[in-house]
């Protein structure tokens, strides 16, 4: 098991079918995402979106749990630039 893998949750059985449904769910979670962005992320050629269970016809199929895990994986910490402190013995203008 991957160290970053999350335990199975109840919403891992709650399916989302099609990019419009996936994009709407992500937007509902507070992360504005368009259908076209989800089409890119779930494209087999790009494959940067949530883990897919498979396809229902031509529509990508995943679960709410997998989408939430994907959202968490895309978050990164805030990096703050600290102002340089003047070194002792130097004159600051």
Give an overview of the whole structure.
This protein has 93 residues and is of the alpha+beta class. It has a domain at 12-74. Helix content is 31%, strand content 12%. The chain has a 3-stranded antiparallel β-sheet with strand order 1-3-2. The protein is elongated and about 70 Å long. The mean pLDDT is 85.
What is the fold's blueprint, element by element?
Layout: E1 15-17, H1 19-28, H2 35-42, E2 54-56, E3 59-63, H3 64-74
Antiparallel strand pairs: 1-3, 2-3
Helix pairs in contact: 1-2
How many strands appear in the DSSP assignment? 3
Shape: elongated
Order of strands, widest sheet: 1-3-2
Contiguous runs where pLDDT drops below 50 for at least 5 residues: none
The sequence of SSEs as H and E is EHHEEH
User: How helical, in percent, are the residues?
Assistant: 25-40%
Regarding quaternary structure, what we see is single chain
Number of helices: 3
Fraction in beta strands? 5-15%
Helix and strand composition category: alpha+beta
Q: Taking all residues together, what is the mean pLDDT?
A: 85
Main β-sheet description: 3 strands, antiparallel
Ends distance? 57 Å
Radius of gyration: 20 Å
Pick out its properties:
3-stranded antiparallel β-sheet; 31% helix; 93 residues; alpha+beta; 12% strand
């Amino acid at each position: 098991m991957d160290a970053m893998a999350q335990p199975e949750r109840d919403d891992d059985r709650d399916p989302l079918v099609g990019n419009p449904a996936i994009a709407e769910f992500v937007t509902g979670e507070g992360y504005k995402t368009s259908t076209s962005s989800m089409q890119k992320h779930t494209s087999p050629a790009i494959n940067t979106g949530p883990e897919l269970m498979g396809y229902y016809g031509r529509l990508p199929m995943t679960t709410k749990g997998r989408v939430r895990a994907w959202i968490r994986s895309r978050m990164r910490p805030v990096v703050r630039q600290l102002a340089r402190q003047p070194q002792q013995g130097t004159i600051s203008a």
